[in-house]
Specification:
globular; 11 helices; two-stranded antiparallel ribbon; two-stranded antiparallel sheet; about 300 residues; mainly alpha
């Protein structure tokens, strides 16, 4: 009996020794694996280089220079350049869309005597899309209804030409030129476009300022012109800011259409589209200013409708 008990005790002690050893080995292996996994994760992280933008150069907008020897100007521009450089998705999409829309905008600006740099105002206002603001401003250029009508854009329950890029761009050139005539500076003209000419006039008189950089304006307008020049810098030289986009990845201008005169009412744009070999969706893509499913056209006005080619 004593011999059996001694044998049992010896076996039990051996078993416990092996169990403790195995547990220790497993723990060490787990810790080693965890360290290895952590090291592997660190080594395989997506590389990212984050560095300040270069401010040691000349900056201008619409031919008007920025006083870069002024620390306030440098810091405000730095903010907008940095923000848009590292707002990757939005800036990347704007560069792609610019290839689609800028050629037409550039042509209309040139034809109407407005500096080419103002194409970036459409980026700042709407990210080059037919956006709608909480206040009701619409289109690439963010016209309020009354202002759009003042500059010749039809806006009613069936047609809203604030969404008609060609016509809205022509209206924009008239508006910005009137601001330039009023304030004598393209930078102040841009500021007035953002905050309104009446408010800007009051601030200029109150603060006795002469240039945009002399004025202490509301936060949005204080950033506005700096954002314009930041967008200009990044979108003009995307690779300098880390954006590498091949030409085939750019959005392309839409040219595969023909214009059709419509002088009569249209009962249903879906049936109209089918008649001309397209569909309701594509008709609206090519003509986003047609905002209803029909056109009453009691005045028998002539509308030019873009029809996609088959």
């Amino acid at each position: 009996m004593q011999k059996s008990l001694a044998t049992y005790t010896l076996i039990l002690a051996a078993f416990l020794t092996i169990a403790v050893f195995a547990s220790s080995t497993k723990s060490d292996a787990s810790e080693s694996s965890s360290k290895s996994s952590s090291s592997s994760t660190t080594q395989n992280d997506i590389p990212q280089i984050v560095k300040p933008v270069n401010l040691d150069k000349a900056f201008s907008f619409a031919g008007e220079s920025f006083p870069m020897d002024n620390f306030d100007v440098r810091e405000r521009l730095d903010r907008e350049l940095t923000r848009n450089t590292y707002w990757h998705s939005n800036t990347l999409l704007n560069i792609k869309k610019a290839n689609k829309y800028f050629p037409m905008i550039e042509r209309i600006l040139a034809e109407n005597g407005v500096p080419d740099d103002f194409k970036y105002l459409a980026v700042a206002e709407s990210d080059l899309r037919n956006a709608v603001s909480p206040a009701g401003a619409k289109g690439f250029w963010q016209f309020m209804r009354k202002t759009g009508q003042q500059y010749g854009l039809e806006s009613n329950a069936e047609v809203d030409e604030r969404y008609h890029l060609e016509k809205a761009t022509v209206a924009f050139t008239k508006y910005i030129k009137s601001n330039k005539k009023r304030f004598g500076s393209w930078l102040l003209a841009a500021a007035a476009y953002n905050m309104g000419g009446t408010r800007l006039s009051k601030e200029i008189k109150l603060q006795n300022g002469n240039t945009y950089f002399d004025l202490n304006l509301n936060q949005e307008t204080s950033r506005y012109v700096f954002r314009l020049v930041a967008l200009k810098e990044i979108m003009s030289n995307p690779r300098d800011f880390g954006f590498y986009i091949d030409s085939h990845q750019m959005y392309q201008p839409v040219t595969d259409f023909y214009n059709l005169e419509v002088k009569e009412p249209v009962a249903n744009w879906g049936k109209f589209a089918e008649k001309y070999g397209t569909n309701y969706r594509m008709l609206k893509v090519y003509n986003p200013w047609l905002i209803s499913s029909s056109l009453t056209n009691k005045s028998r006005k002539t509308y030019m409708i873009k029809i996609p080619k088959k």
